[in-house]
């Protein structure tokens, strides 16, 4: 069964450093998403992406964040200057379509620890 | 804010028991709803979708009451493997999912 993959599984970085989290969505999916989950808290939407553009973003997704689809398979989330409060699990997801009945498939996540 | 609220639990039940979780949502424009299951430190995985009048999938039944903005999940004949956190999720405009905080279920032998 096709699945979303994410690398690395765990990233440790120093405050102020840039990090890039990588995702490979399911190959025939067209819509891509990033969510994050701070330990013990809700899963929160960050951004959705379609046709090489951001479709929607939350208030969390400020100027420190950016997303890119650099080639035909990867989808990346960049945090320019990490803060302690960016420590969280970051989940990538993809869906075939954008309708209300379309399942978003989640990757296994990247645990980001900012020291 | 467009919130989804759940009782965090934990619900501790013996194997074979029936357990029900509830969820309320504040955004009346939400079009569809889902129950996701999340195991400890893992990604959310879709358990079932919940549409207008609800649906059933084996031991799991989900109900939606739009008038009350209320969703439920019923698990019959609980198994040890059902132990997890159950996330109530609303699909809102902009193709974003809004997650509840989850209800933790512990099924004991």
Task: Please outline what is shown here.
Chain A is an all-beta fold and 115 residues long.
Could you characterize the architecture of this molecule?
- The complex is a heterodimer of chains A (115) and B (109).
- By secondary structure, chain A is mainly beta.
- Chain A contains no helices and 11 strands.
- The termini of chain A are far apart.
- Chain B is mainly beta.
- Chain B has strands at residues 4-6, 11-14, 19-25, 32-38, 45-50, 55-57, 60-65, 70-75, 84-92, 96-99, 103-108.
- In chain B, strand 4 (32-38) and strand 5 form a beta hairpin.
- Chain B is globular, with a radius of gyration of 13 Å.
- The termini of chain B are far apart.
- Chain A binds chain B through residues 31, 33, 35, 41-45, 48, 55-56, 58, 89, 91, 95, 98, 100-101, 103-109, 111, and chain B through 31-32, 38, 41-46, 49, 51, 87, 91, 94-102.
List the helices and strands and how they pair.
The complex is a heterodimer of chains A (115) and B (109).
Chain A: E1 5-7, E2 10-13, E3 19-24, E4 31-37, E5 43-50, E6 53-57, E7 65-68, E8 75-79, E9 88-95, E10 105-106, E11 110-114
Parallel strand pairs in A: 2-11
Antiparallel strand pairs in A: 1-3, 3-8, 4-5, 4-9, 5-6, 7-8, 9-10, 9-11
Chain B: E1 4-6, E2 11-14, E3 19-25, E4 32-38, E5 45-50, E6 55-57, E7 60-65, E8 70-75, E9 84-92, E10 96-99, E11 103-108
Structural descriptors:
heterodimer; A: 115 residues; 7-stranded mixed β-sheet; 4-stranded antiparallel β-sheet; 0% helix; globular; B: 109 residues; mainly beta; 6-stranded mixed β-sheet; 5-stranded antiparallel β-sheet
């Amino acid at each position: 069964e096709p699945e979303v993959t994410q690398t690395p599984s765990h990233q440790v970085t120093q405050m102020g450093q840039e990090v890039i989290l990588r995702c490979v969505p399911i190959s025939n999916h067209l819509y891509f998403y990033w969510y994050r989950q701070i330990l013990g808290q809700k899963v929160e939407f960050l951004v959705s992406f379609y046709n090489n553009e951001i479709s929607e973003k939350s208030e969390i997704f400020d100027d420190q964040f950016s997303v890119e689809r650099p080639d035909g398979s990867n989808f990346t989330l960049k945090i320019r200057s990490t803060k302690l409060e960016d420590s969280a699990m970051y989940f990538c997801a993809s869906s075939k379509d954008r309708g209300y009945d379309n399942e978003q498939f989640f990757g296994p996540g990247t645990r980001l620890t900012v020291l | 804010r467009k919130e989804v609220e759940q009782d965090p639990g934990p619900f501790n039940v013996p194997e074979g028991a029936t357990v029900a979780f509830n969820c309320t949502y504040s955004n009346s424009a939400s079009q569809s709803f889902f129950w996701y299951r999340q195991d400890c430190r893992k990604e959310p995985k879709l358990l079932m979708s919940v549409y207008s009048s609800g649906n059933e999938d084996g031991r799991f039944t989900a109900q939606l009451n739009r008038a009350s903005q209320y969703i439920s999940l019923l698990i019959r004949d609980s198994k040890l493997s059902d132990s997890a956190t159950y996330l109530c999720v609303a699909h809102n405009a902009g193709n974003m999912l809004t997650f509840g905080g989850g209800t933790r279920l512990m099924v004991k032998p």
